[in-house]
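Agenda item 2: magnesium ion complex prediction
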Amino acid sequence: MALMNYAQAACKALAEAMRADASVVALGEDLGHGGVFGQYRGLQQEFGKARVIDTPISEATIVGAAVGMALTGLHPVVEMRVVDFALCAIDEIVNQAAKNRYMFGGQGRVPLVARLPIGVWSGSAAQHSQSLEAWFAHIPGLVVVAPATPADNHGLLAAAIACGDPVIYMEHKELWGFQGEVPAQAECVLGKARIARSGTDVTLVSWSRMLHTALAAAEQAAQQGVSIEVIDLRTIWPWDRQLVLESAARTGRLLVAHEAVQAAGFGAEIVATVAQELGIPVRRAGAPRIPVGYARTLEDAARVSAETLLLELSALVNGDGRGRSMA
Amino acid sequence: MPGANSSPAARLLYLYRTMARIRAFENAAEEASRGSVAAFGATANTTALVRGPLHLSTGQEAVAAGVCANLLRSDCLTSTHRGHGHTLAKGADASAMMCELFGRADGTNKGKGGSMHIADFAVGMLGANGVVAAGIPIAVGAAHSAKIRGSSAIVACFFGDGAINRGPFLEGLNWARIFDLPILFVCEDNRYSATTATDAMTAGAGAAARARGIGLPAETVDGNDVIAVDDAARELVARIRAGNGPQFMHALTYRIKGHVSVDAAAYRDQGEVEQAIESDPLKLAGSRLAALGVPAERIAEVDAEAQAEIQAALAAAHAARVPDPDEAYADVQDTGAGQWR
Ligand SMILES: Cc1ncc(C[n+]2csc(CCOP(=O)(O)OP(=O)(O)O)c2C)c(N)n1
Ligand SMILES: [Mg+2]
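Presented output:
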């Protein structure tokens, strides 16, 4: 175990993968100077410019070239800076990386990891603050990962690089400095969620930074005598249905919380599945369907707070789950 | 294949054979695709054996044949929606290709791609593409990969005249130049972007000028003259193999058929089409062969062999198995396999 932040944990995972396997390369803008969040610090010095590649501002070609690299024996890790810029490479992600194996009848594999950081990046407004994990979860062929802790950013990045499928790897734009213990050996399995806090009254599923809000809400609920089980989903696709269903069956109530816009968010998929399978009260909490505004007041209006989660939890515990009721 | 040092007649006969095989393939595919898709005023015939949009390279065979004659099996190629010619010329098996067009489990892509996604990775053909210009970044990545891995392979990247108006063209050429990649860009200029004359949609002095603007050496060739394409490709490929970085070929040709097989292309001037048929690359190569003293019977023999090969491919496609519905679930992804039913 070592204490490090979320950026350093990812850097450690990538360095370990590059040391172990000469076919692992990284490409994107500004990597030579450590990446804009320091998540590539020291890598170009250690592995050279041929393997830690500084690219032009050509998002379509960063991902498209990574597809060509992946098809010809390399394992590229692609940096998009923020998910918002990856929209300039949406054809390359959706039509090329995700479809290649299937539409060519399994002739090739596209083992690439595309890092697309999500979340509100405080003060950065509408084009740098989106959480678009549901878009990518919708696309057959893609794996979608969203780590919430330094340990997971180490373990899940290692697993993503090793998995052989195209992975949309969604770090959070504001977790880079978040500190935590990271085990020496990566120990994450894609598709496996984690019980971050045990409880008996409600299952609260979340991921990425919202996990920490969920944990804060669970702590406050505990003070009011309500026991919340918090699940860190970690992998959005394939999501850990088994663990979520087991937990929800035990607690009898489910809330899913995410930073993304609630409408057509991934929470809808989870609550629909659980409602269908278990018939228990379910609720979801996501952002209102507004862009993220610049002013603090506007930005806050687009956030989901612990207070909101408490209202949702109380609707589940004290009501019938239909409409919010204040206890 | 007869190399560059073989007799001109032997080399040309080899190129002619490739063109004749492509032409026979395209004609057979066209026939099997009657009513393949509801577009361009045509109604779909649900019994068509080749389904959906079929983009024929009829009239453009010299570009595929001339360029690919200078590639090795270990070299890679990316293509467009109009990719049968490139795939055959790169060495794919015509039967496996026809099976793919017929949507059979024995097709190059197990029936999952069809004409628009035809590919044969075993011969370095990394795929046709349903998205205009999308092959360019992939080709650039394959070339970048060859450089990183220290492989001697080069990459040929085919795209149409319409593709030069999409962003990946600029991004890809710039990338290939700054990283000095072993790649040959081939702009196959058939003068049309679907139903629209590309000229009217393209500012500036065209493909080669744009390439030069990004610092790539560029040659414009008569893309209907297979000898001219072969000569230019030989020179450009030699430069790439010698480590001189990316090169660009602008090949002027013509799309004899419609945009897709059901498109009658009535929007074109009939005189223009007749003129193009006059400069049909096979016709031109045939008269060149005669001038080099190759007997007409020898040429007819090559034509007959090409016909026989494609007839056999058709027969194989007719006989081949259609994919089982369960096969729709294979080759999606490994992680979470089985979670998408
Ligand atoms: C990005 C994108 N836009 C539009 C289309 C529809 N489309 C298919 S082929 C084509 C024309 C392409 O022209 P060109 O690049 O010259 O190739 P050609 O068809 O002449 O071989 C168009 C517009 C597409 N496939 N992809
Ligand atoms: Mg064209």
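Discussion summary: The two ends of chain A are 43 Å apart (CA to CA).
Owner for follow-up: CH.
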